[in-house]
Design a protein that fits this description.
Layout: H1 2-9, H2 16-25, E1 27-31, E2 36-38, E3 46-52, E4 55-61, E5 64-71, E6 75-77, H3 80-85, E7 92-95, E8 99-105, H4 106-115, H5 119-143, H6 146-156, H7 166-173, H8 177-187
């Protein structure tokens, strides 16, 4: 739980009473490898904070799963549009590894927002950071060739490269698994 509190405190201040409320509203859970945190077609019911493991955000395109991005430790996970607007999600969030998360239900999340004065301001800063990271992830995918995309991914996320199945990484990079294997072979 301290990881979550330390993360929140990077974006604003909370007094001990507020921290105790956050802890009270949170629940720690394990999500097994390949299980879904949330699924397309359903309304997102929870916000998670990833303590251990890797999640991938993907969508289905005419029967093919396309990986949009990965989340690792010390990141929030939620389909924000689905969660806040109460509409069905268009994406899946799936565990790539066994994951340990801190979860907040929709009602507990709203309680925190209604009780802690600085909560929405803290969340706004976290959301802005997440949107910037999402933009940084997408930009190289559009502009660079496959080898450079892989090298940049490996440089930017060295802890993820060897923890993600090649098929998911290839999908994220917009190439086939065999192309990714060739790129990795040529680099080594």
């Amino acid at each position: 739980m301290k990881e979550l509190i330390n993360y929140l405190l990077q974006f604003g201040s909370l007094n001990q009473q507020q921290i105790n409320l956050v802890v009270k509203k949170a629940e720690e859970k394990t999500l097994r490898k390949e299980a879904y945190f949330s699924e397309a077609g359903n309304i997102a019911q929870q916000v998670g904070f990833l303590l251990e493991g890797i999640l991938r955000v993907c969508y289905n395109n005419q029967g093919d799963e396309i990986t949009r991005y990965f989340l690792d430790e010390n990141n929030f996970v939620v389909d924000l549009n689905s969660f806040t607007s109460r509409i069905p999600s268009t994406e899946y969030v799936q565990a790539i590894t066994d994951c340990r998360l801190i979860l907040f239900s929709y009602s507990n999340w709203r309680d925190l927002s209604n009780t802690i004065v600085a909560w929405d301001k803290i969340l706004s800063k976290i959301t802005a950071k997440a949107l910037l990271q999402k933009t940084e992830r997408i930009s190289p995918l559009v502009a660079e060739n496959a080898t450079i995309r892989y090298l940049e991914f490996h440089q930017k996320y060295p802890n993820l490269s060897n923890r993600i199945p090649l098929s998911y990484l290839a999908s994220y990079l917009g190439i086939t698994p065999s192309s990714l294997s060739r790129i990795r072979k040529n680099i080594c």
